[in-house]
Predict the 3D structure of the following.
Amino acid sequence: MIAAWVGFFDSLIALALILAGVIGAHFDLIVPFLGFQLFLLGLLFGVLSLILGIIGLFRTRRPEWRSSRGRAMVASYLGVIFTGLLVYLAVSAKGYPAINDITTDVDNPPQFVHAANLAPNQGRNLSYNKAKYAARQEQGYGPVQPLRVSQDPDQCFKEVSTLASDMHGWRVTYTDARTRTIEGVATTPLFHFHDDFVIQVRPAPNGNGSLVEMRSKSRDGEGDVGANYNRIENFFRTLSAATARSEKVSSHKPA
């Protein structure tokens, strides 16, 4: 029965494309964006296999086509899985704005200095495009605020430097103690997308404590499904906890 056979082969093609995309990108055999495209193409083949599998199940009820029923079932089962995953990804991405450059200060964002010298960034424009991103960021996430820390800027910068070096998937590529700036590359777990980030510690406006400003920018795509925003929020939570522990230890030291 044609629908059962075609659906079966479509499901195998879907599985092959998904595995090729994930494995190829994760182990750096292909560039991350190509891996993601193969992954999405595989999911689309999965939708097709589901449609053909259902048709095949319906048609193979006839005794003369019963031998193809197993292939129709495989196409349907795999199709359900892949279609469900595609729907999940689409729903998850829907709430995020189509931007891939997030900063805690849209008027005076931390600027990349060293990132432009990295080979993958040759020819890329790493400047912040306020007209393109600021309004979308505000609409999608609300105000993205810098982190206020009670430590003085130099002490805070040491804390930031230590934590940034220890963050999973992060690689610090540049440190400038004079401007209290750190740059690095964050690698996503599955497809190994590489995003550039810069963190800068600035004196608080009233001279008491510090402001930690951060910017995170993807190298690929128009949207990031919240990856850069979540990276900033996660680092700020980690830093807040670390500075709270440091302050607690300092308060218990004998005078």
Q: What stands out?
A: The longest strand covers residues 194-203.
